[in-house]
Design goal:
The chain has about 350 residues and is mainly alpha-helical. The protein is about 55% helix and about 5% strand. It has helices spanning about 1-10, 30-45, 65-70, 85-90, 100-105, 110-115, 125-135, 140-150, 155-170, 180-185, 190-205, 220-225, 235-240, 260-265, 265-275, 285-295, 305-320, 325-335, and strands spanning about 20-25, 50, 95, 210.
Length: about 350
């Protein structure tokens, strides 16, 4: 969507066409998704297209991740390093990074109801429970959410209770109005932390980073256009804002790929097996439970940041990373946001 809108804007105002930059790694996308990328670029008639095809492992502490962690310290989200090869291609220029929209629709739990009320789709059975949830106080929604949220067995009991409370309280307090939810989302530390990470990567690689949703007025304009009900679900928004600019095939719903095996690969398992337990606070983390999670058949993606922080802490202790231990701690605090 952003590429289509940027292309239209550039051509209307006499600017050069934007140059799409795509990470072509077989573990991140299916052949069908690669075909869709080609369809979009051809549909927009963009003459230049940078396709980056790294041979390196995309593990959470693999070669690409390790280089990024050594440059910036711990970051959020933990898979931010996958953007490093693309940012490096744009060295000396401006890299526009679209982040936040997919997360927004995962977070704005009322999107299905908004779609029904706006007449975009017929009500389904699941909408009844969602509507009932909307009518109860936030404190009751938080309690119900806490019962449904998977436990965090790698944390000590008190830390787990605190973490679950933070997660469920936020989920319960999601604004019902699209306009308010959109402006609230960009103030949360998940969003600001991600924007800070990508700007730090850009600075380290000599590339200016633009995050459209963090620019003054962009989200406010989106919120104003969407109003109370917004656009319904993400696909509806895509169709309304850029449906005339994109091929119709792009609007079809597709399952998200399972990237867990990609991120928790052999480097992560080797580190987990040999990890001494240093780098993490044992008052917060159950070291052996965390190790079992990392070595399980399906590691919990919520432990990804802990894996990277433990690995980087060990690198600092061994003198293998140029990042001083004090800076490591400071970076972690900065990435937490306000």
């Amino acid at each position: 969507m952003w590429l289509a809108m940027a292309t239209r804007y550039a051509r209307r105002h006499g600017h050069d066409d934007p140059v799409p930059v795509t990470l072509r790694h077989p573990s991140l996308a299916s052949p069908e998704q690669f075909t869709l990328q080609e369809l979009v670029v051809a549909h927009l008639d963009l003459p230049d297209w940078e396709r980056v095809e790294p041979d390196d492992d995309l593990d959470l502490i693999g070669p690409i991740a390790a280089a990024s962690l050594r440059r910036t310290g711990p970051f959020w989200p933990p898979n931010a390093y996958t953007m490093a090869p693309l940012i490096e291609v744009a060295r000396g220029g401006v890299f526009m990074l679209v982040t936040g929209l997919s997360d927004f629709f995962a977070w704005w739990r009322w999107a299905p109801l908004a779609g029904v009320l706006a007449g975009h789709r017929r009500p389904a059975r699941r909408d009844v429970a969602l509507f009932a949830s909307m009518l109860v106080p936030a404190v009751l929604r938080a309690r119900a959410s806490r019962r449904r949220t998977p436990t965090l067995p790698w944390l000590q009991p008190a830390a787990e209770q605190r973490a679950l409370a933070l997660l469920t309280d936020r989920q319960a307090a999601v604004p019902m109005r699209f306009s308010r939810a959109a402006t609230t989302q960009i103030t949360h530390r998940c969003f600001t932390g991600a924007a800070g990470t990508f700007r730090a990567l850009g600075e380290a690689l000599g590339t200016a980073i633009e995050v459209p949703l963090s620019r003054p007025g962009v989200v406010e304009s989106l919120a104003g256009t969407g109003g109370w009900l917004g656009f319904g679900e993400q696909r509806t928004m895509l169709q309304r804002l850029a449906g005339d600019l994109l091929p119709s095939e792009l609007l079809a719903r597709r399952p998200a790929p399972d990237l867990n095996p990609v991120f928790f690969g052999e480097p992560s398992r080797e580190f987990a097996a040999s990890w001494t337990g240093t780098g993490l606070d044992e008052l917060v983390v159950d070291i052996e439970a965390l190790r079992r999670t990392w070595l399980s058949d399906r590691p919990d993606p919520r432990t990804a940041c802990l894996l990277q922080y433990a690995w980087l802490s060990e690198q600092v202790a061994l003198g293998s990373s140029p990042l001083p231990a004090g800076e490591l701690l400071l970076t972690q605090r900065n990435q937490r946001g306000s």
